[in-house]
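$ run holo --ligand "9MJ" --emit tokens
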Amino acid sequence: MSPARPGDPDGNMHGDERARAAWLRERIEAANHRYYVLDDPDIPDIEYDRLVRELEAIEAAWPELATADSPTRRVGAEPLKAFAEVVHQVPMLSLNNAFSEAEVAAFDRRVREGLGREDAVVEYAVEPKFDGLAVSLVYRDGEFVQGATRGDGYRGEDVGANLRAIRAIPMRLATDAPPAWLEVRGEVIMLRRDFERLNAEARERGEKTFVNPRNAAAGSLRQLDPRITARRRLSFFAYGIGRIEGTTPPATHAGVMDWLADMRLPVSGERASVFGVDGLLDYFRRLGERRAGLPFDIDGAVYKVNRLADQDALGFVARAPRFAIAHKYPAQEELTLVEAIDVQVGRTGALTPVARLRPVFVGGVTVTNATLHNQDEIERKDVRVGDTVIVRRAGDVIPEVVGVLFDRRPLRDLVEPLHPPYRLPATCPECGAPVIRLDGEAAARCANGLACPAQRKQAILHFASRRAMDIEGLGEKLVEQLVDQGLVHTPADLYRLDAATLAGLERMAEKSAANLVAAIDASRGRELARFIHALGIRNVGEQTAKDLARHFGALDALMAADIEALIEVPEVGPVVAESLRAFFAEPHNRDVIEQLRAAGAWVDGEARVARAGGLAGRTFVLTGTLPGMSRDQARARIEAEGGKVSGAVSKKTDYVVAGEEAGSKLAKARELGITILDEASLLDLLDQGERHA
Ligand code: 9MJ
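-- output --
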């Protein structure tokens, strides 16, 4: 664009620039909304950057064209000295909580009684309860002019400069008829992926990490330097309105939410309207099922009487509305005490420190143990016996200690530590062998291999597991007894067990002993890939086992292969090749394999030469969620065409198939210049493969 100069002959003071700047602001805000609110960008990043630079250039050349709500003004230049105080014109009250269905039923009864419609079925607007920080946003004539924290409900802190840095928050409402005054209320949160990224970066720099997204959001919003807030990537969801002037809002809460959404304010896509207690509880259950898969943390559902006139009629008790309630899920985080730190030895000898906890109800179960991962993690978190810690159990994930409350560490520990920093033992707690930690590995390992009973038990459990030899009924308690009583030293010993011996074990009746012998028997003759996987070779997982079986066909061929022959297998690199070589070089392992051969544990296949045409010789990596098929289905179709599916992107990868929420693999593929396919292009390729084959 050629900049017109002020005072152009048409008397229109750089009207072109004014119009262009207004257009750019609108376009940038619209792009922000698509990107940060709808998660569905409509222009590439590079185009977005171009638009911002153009607007910056216009505003620099004609400062009088710069407006306060310009997207170029999102990040202030100077840190604040302190936050100013903001008085809420309509108090920001909190919600009462319900922890049971009975409490929800009581809430609904109070609502019906309060409305004098005891027999009615009330309509409720329902939404997730975000676990973040409540804030208030003020728009005057459509322009964002003030933002504040909830504070004590009556007075909050002016964090407007920081809220401007949140790109999900529009600086101008998208409407031709903005209200003279509109106060929007909602929650500032941090998405889980942004939280993980923030912590990963902090870890890399050796800095303190945040214990959860809520704390990260709070710490980021209450920064005096908005530039820090801007880097933290906060999100926002609106859930209500405060003071409003100059327009009549819709008559229902659901209507208000739609109205806010139309003006480009982010509102939850999980919101709904339901009727009566049954509707509330049904929503609670369905949201609970989706909870673990949501991109953000929620701690419950919020129910609000839908009609605003009914809300007004119900009013408030004490400091909470009578027309709304928060129905909470069991907490995923709790405080408890570390009573001891023990060490578990895994299949590969890795020592995992485990915190023994004072029992605590969290995530819907009583938790008594939580993993501490490894020595580095313990040091980073400085967890010690006697500490009060935050324990987290989310979904089916194993419970974890997320952090220590240092101010609760017994005071004398600070003067003369009762419990020094924890260190993993130098010898294996199971067999007394030395513990070694290799360079570049997080785990310390017992060096005793299968001579260590703990590793032996894990090796046998792995051998019998569902995706390996699939021996039904051979569980932990049983393997423990079999190893401790010296009945089983290696997987080969399993095939020599008889029902009479087994029936002598604890909790083993004659029938279950016979069933187990039958299950062991049934596992003879498994295909080679399962057998290779079952051997539990370091770095050789299920997929690598399949690759090896397909490539070599027979176990003897695999055992005879040297490093050069091994790395000829696509996807097998030097590390895996070395693991294989070391495993098969070990006389004990060769001996066990011979015994398993005698027991008929596996059958060899044929070295499969991928059929010509099709996708033979092509390696695919799948990432993200595809719209029309599961990953297993995609894998099956690719393999059916002779292609290979690998877990990691490398120079050997031919195609990366990317669906929604594709992450680092997609980035790596771009970096390496690998062809990226969406589902439709994959299907095209498969079709071509079929036709050529
Ligand atoms: C949260 N935290 O998600 C309210 N909230 O309504 C929702 N909080 C609320 N609504 C009135 N969804 C006061 C607080």
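-- notes --
The longest helix spans residues 15-37.
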